[in-house]
Amino acid sequence: MQVSIACTEQNLRSRNSEDRLCGPRPGPGGGNGGPAGGVHGNPPGGGASGPKARTAVVLRPPAPPGVLRESTGRGTGMKYRNLGKSGLRVSCLGLGTWVTFGSQISDETAEDVLTAAYEHGINLFDTTDVYAAGKAERTLGNILKSKGWRRSSYVITTKIFGGGQAETERGLSRKHIIEGLRESLERLQLGYVDIVFASRSDPNSPMEEIVRAMTYVINQGLALYWGTSRWGAAEIMEAYSVARQFNLIPPVCEQAEHHLFQREKVEMQLPELYHKIGVGSVTWSPLACGLIHSKYDGRVSDPCKATIKWLKDKVQSEDGKKQQAKVMDLLPIAHQLGCTVAQLAIAWCLRSEGVSSVLLGVSSAEQLIEHLGALQVLSQLTPQTVMEIDGLLGNKPHSKK
Description:
Blueprint (H helix, E strand, L loop, with lengths): L8 H6 L2 H6 L47 E3 L6 E4 L6 E3 L1 E4 L3 H5 L2 H13 L4 E3 L8 H13 L7 E6 L13 H15 L4 E7 L7 H13 L3 E7 L3 H13 L7 E5 L6 H14 L2 E5 L18 H4 L2 H8 L1 H20 L3 H10 L4 E6 L4 H8 L1 H5 L4 H11 L8
Parallel strand pairs: 4-5, 4-11, 5-6, 6-7, 7-8, 8-9, 9-10, 10-11
Antiparallel strand pairs: 1-2, 2-3
Helix pairs in contact: 4-5, 4-14, 6-7, 7-8, 8-9, 12-16
């Protein structure tokens, strides 16, 4: 499928990044960019006024091509990256709520996990409308409300696609995107989410309708950015092209599965989108849905994922057994680096080009803290070590050009 892009790479680089990613700036009273004043609008008194006002322009050198500007949090050691080529800074490790929140762990444990994550510098919390039939969003919202953390200090993402039994309560129609997001906000007890993802593509909804609906919820202040989840590269390019054609807001990131045994999309397709149109990657399942875990180092595997039938079947399948053998082959490298094989696998995901954040799924605060040890492993992943891992796995994707 060939999709024409409505502007060249030179135009993309030269356009103001705020206009490119967030649409027209709001004038007095909010305009098209968002609600007037308040939490979601531009800060009051932020600009100079009068004919004598002068603005000092400071030019900074551009980052090297393909390099994500990275900083380290004081006191936590957490690393922060831009979400794609937007200005939003997210922790390179995020917290997901699939399987756990509102389902297989208690609300008290969920609060312990979220608190540990926040205190260790994680600022990205991911959920969706269908996790535990909406209970994950309610649990996350209740915890955030009880903690009273500054809303500006963390990033909340949710996804839209499923949500109900009626024909109009699923998919990516304008109706469901708007109504579904409002229902998510009610469960989360928030005025807006930072990123709303279109979870899966919808062949029944025209791309223009999807992009217009996402632009609308951003302009209404219900979300600040939008992204895609489990979309193909051609579909993401089409969404970008439609946004350019009609002066709408394009997606800023794709959420995709990525781990030692799932590599093609994140390592071959998404980096090209990152360089061409600024779309970053938020990846999930760095431990292959529980197949890679600390059991190999004498620790206990995640009890939540171990009880899910399809995951158990996947691990016990012929491919699953071959993959477990590959994980065992990685143990000497992990021991040499002084880490667990799970920490090695997470660090390996973090080093991929264009990856803004890797989502962790944990069932206890202790498991979360153990996984955070991957940050120390990341600096030890030399090109030689990565080549050694690739040699053991034997599945490095190659360009088909």
